[in-house]
Specification:
Largest sheet: 7 strands, mixed
CATH class: Alpha Beta
Strand order of the largest sheet: 3-2-1-4-5-7-6
Number of helices: 9
Number of domains: 1
Helix content: 25-40%
CATH superfamily: Vaccinia Virus protein VP39
Order of helices and strands: HHHHEHEHEEHEHHEE
Distance between the termini: 36 Å
Structural class: alpha/beta
Amino acid sequence: MTDIEAHSRANGLAARDVAKLARHIFADVRGGIKYKQGLRPYICPFHVLVDYISSNATLLDVGCVAGLFISVLARLGRLQSAVGFDADRAAISAAQNISRALPNSSRIRFEHRDAHEMWPDGLFDVVCLIDVMHHVSPDKQAELITNATEHLAEGGILLYKDMACRPLWRAWANRLHDLLSVGEWIYYAKLDDVIAWARAEGLHLDDRGSMNMLWYRHEWCVFHRL
């Protein structure tokens, strides 16, 4: 157990703490995936999001990429079990490799599948949509919230985080990021629309927030199912 793992609950986490933990988790992974996971905590507020996950949670991470969020939560002792899935086969392969060394690894699995395909079976305490929505076409965005709600256990929470569409210069900086990194044109969803879709599914808004990290602006909401 690292010092970060031992003391994170008492002292809170900073982005650099999550980055250090990520470098440790992905130390034996080869190629660009390894370095992306070590850098991502500096541009994505995982250090904020982990505080929404209570201990002993069952969790579904939609669009988990290489499994960074699940892996960090497992190292911090927050998970009873977890399933992550993503359309990137190389990222999922890396996630499957690193999962063998995670605490409670027999209850953590990563699957290669697209968010538009059938999702893993079961109901979960937490469903995460972290930087997924802007990769979904506008006509399918409300459906993403519907699918997430259908996988929430009673009293469970939906953790939604995505890139903000304002101010425009930050939104365009992120759009350029996706064009250069994955060659994809992204589609922003207004946070008020996401909240309306969630409420239409019977979810209650518990919290919302936003912050800047470098030239990126992030916004998030936490909902729970009554």
